[in-house]
């Protein structure tokens, strides 16, 4: 039993260590953050972005993008940062079976965070600045 507890505590610590918050990102990039206006600093702390922000500002506010795309067209090249919906999904199932004089049943409940969830947010950069922000409702 103690070994199982140690394993669970370790797994939780690893999972939490992977979480990145605006405050932890700001702490790692204190010099860059200090150079922004108080209004920009407040938005970054709140995890919010605006048009005109640089990639550095967006990374401080939102963290690393889950996917990065590049779009080439007649107007030039844009870079798209995609942030994926990582909220958990829940499933519920009921099964019944039988054969001869015997029958059985079961109930299962599950949760998952994997699979393709689609993007919740896309940030489009043009010329090193946020040109557009796309938010997707679920």
In short:
By secondary structure, this protein is an alpha+beta fold. The protein is 32% helix and 38% strand. The chain has helices spanning 2-17, 22-28, 30-34, 38-45, 55-62, and strands spanning 67-73, 76-84, 89-99, 102-112, 119-126, 129-135.
Describe it for me?
With 138 residues, the chain is of the alpha+beta class. The chain folds into two domains: 1-64, no CATH class; 66-138, no CATH class. It has five helices and six strands; from the N terminus they run H-H-H-H-H-E-E-E-E-E-E. It has helices at 2-17, 22-28, 30-34, 38-45, 55-62; strands at residues 67-73, 76-84, 89-99, 102-112, 119-126, 129-135. The strands form two sheets. It has a four-stranded antiparallel β-sheet, with no helix packed on it. The longest helix is centred in the first third of the chain and has 16 residues, at 2-17. The protein is elongated, with a radius of gyration of 22 Å. Mean pLDDT is 82; it is low at 5-18.
